Amino acid sequence: MEIKIQIKSIFGSVLFEYSKENNTIKDTLCEANLCGADLRGANLRGADLRGADLCGANLRGANLRGADLRGANLCGANLCGANLRGADLRGADLCEANLCGADLREGTAFLLSQCPDGAFIGYKKASSHIVKLLVPEDAKRSSATTLKCRCSKAKVLEIQNLDGSKSDLKAVPSDRDENFIYVVGKEKEVEGFDEDRWNECSTGIHFFISREMAVKY
To answer: Binning pLDDT at 50, 70 and 90, where does residue 178 land?
Structure first.
């Protein structure tokens, strides 16, 4: 028997509908493209939202307690005041998401920072090159739910070509701000470093611990 399931906004408008034999809510959510959807106050407790596209969705005050959000695209989503307690956010993209007032207890307990303690080496891509960085012991550092990290300051050790060979360049500009220049041998520091780890795309020097990840980014 074919079953049609609709996903509606709090105002009653149909955001998405899906029909198939023996359809389930889980199947419908897996098929749904909820990018930019208005889901304010929605009750999605325990929902299977693995890999769901919720980019730019308005989830303000939504109940996502215990929801499976592994690999979900929440980039730019409004999660202000949302209940994410016990939600599985492993691999979720929260870049530029608004998590102001969100309840993140339990669900993020396993999301340990990707950044080591003390001084360590990091890599970032800039101007189609790889910048090898030394993050000093006293630098502030953070990571959210992905492998991307941020720090308040770092020394430029070397500029490399993507293939790993040393570049002849002594300086390259940031891809985000052409006036922010990475110069070999010089330390760069960012003013107003955002210490909220969940603001993944906020102020700071963005980098990866793995050179391979920086190349692929």
So the answer is: very high
Q: What are phi and psi of 26, to 5 degrees?
A: -60, -45
DSSP β-ladder status, 205-207 and 129-135: unpaired
Q: Which residues, in sequence order, are CB contacts of 102 under 8 Å at separation 6+?
A: 79, 80, 81, 82, 83, 84, 198
For residues 35 and 53, is the Cβ–Cβ distance under 8 A?
A: yes
Residue-wise pLDDT for 137-152, tens only, equals 999 999 876 788 999 9
Q: How far apart are the first and last CA of the chain?
A: 45
* Amino acid of residue 37: A
Mean pLDDT of the chain, nearest integer:
88
State the DSSP H helix or E strand holding residue 132, giving kind and residue range, or none if neither.
Answer: strand 129-135
Partner residues linked to 3 by β-bridges: 20
Mapped onto helix, strand or coil, the DSSP state of residue 172 is strand
User: CB neighbours of 169 closer than 8 A, spacing ≥ 6?
Assistant: 129, 159
Residue ranges in the chain assigned as alpha helix (H) = 25-31, 211-216
CB neighbours of residue 176 within 10 Å:
9
Predicted TM-score (pTM) of this structure: 0.64
